[in-house]
Write a structure and sequence with these properties.
Blueprint: E1 14-15, H1 19-28, E2 30-34, E3 37-43, E4 51-56, H2 63-83, E5 89-95, H3 97-101, H4 104-118
Parallel strand pairs: 1-4, 4-5
Antiparallel strand pairs: 2-3, 3-5
């Protein structure tokens, strides 16, 4: 089945949804673990807005805790990318147990530092 054309609004990040996309980013991309988040990034040959994927393992807790952690992570990334939009990159953010316990401002700072460490920002 051919891939669907990208229906993104200009500047709005897309989503990574399929397991092979996550695995490709993990295998071929760069990785940075900073504080409450692990960031994996893989460059793409286009200038489309960044595509984002979020994952939180069962080690973090039950479904309620994992979803709350994922929502905190999504909001922190949204605010960071509003300040500095990215293009031509796939990002996978992995939530840790410390992600949900971390101060929200500190979590945003962790994401900025991880982006700088990888060299994406």
């Amino acid at each position: 089945m051919p891939a669907q054309p990208c229906k993104l609004q200009p500047g709005k990040p897309g989503r990574l949804k399929r397991r092979p996309e996550f695995l490709r980013t993990a295998a071929s991309g760069r990785k940075a673990a900073v504080g409450g988040v692990v960031l994996q990034a893989l460059g793409r040959p286009d200038d489309l807005p960044a595509r984002l994927g979020f994952t939180v393992t069962k080690k973090v807790g039950n479904a309620v805790v994992r979803n709350r952690t994922r929502r905190r992570l999504k909001e922190a990334v949204r605010l960071v990318l509003n300040e500095q939009p990215l293009a031509g990159v796939d990002l996978v953010l992995i939530g840790r147990d410390s992600t949900r316990k971390r101060n929200f401002i500190t979590l945003q700072s962790d994401i900025r530092r991880a982006l700088a460490k990888i060299g994406v920002s």
